[in-house]
Amino acid sequence: MSSLARGENISSVEVTNISAHGLWILAHGKELFLPYEQFPWFKEQKISSVLRVEEVSPGHFYWPDLDIDLTEEIIEHPERFPLSAKST
Question: How far apart are CA 47 and CA 68, in angstroms?
């Protein structure tokens, strides 16, 4: 008797915490912090929209309800990617 093959991991990234300062995502055992100072688009959004994140390719995250996509490199080193945005 053989075991059935496991299904594909559909939950490779998830938002683990939302605070007054930013949000944390967990991807492949690594936790990343997105402070609102560098990522203001998340600050005034509905929680359900922030929680709905997909990993479209390794290290590339997309929030479909917000039309925001970020890479792990942008999250870890926002100073390398000057951003200009207005919080809504």
Answer: 15
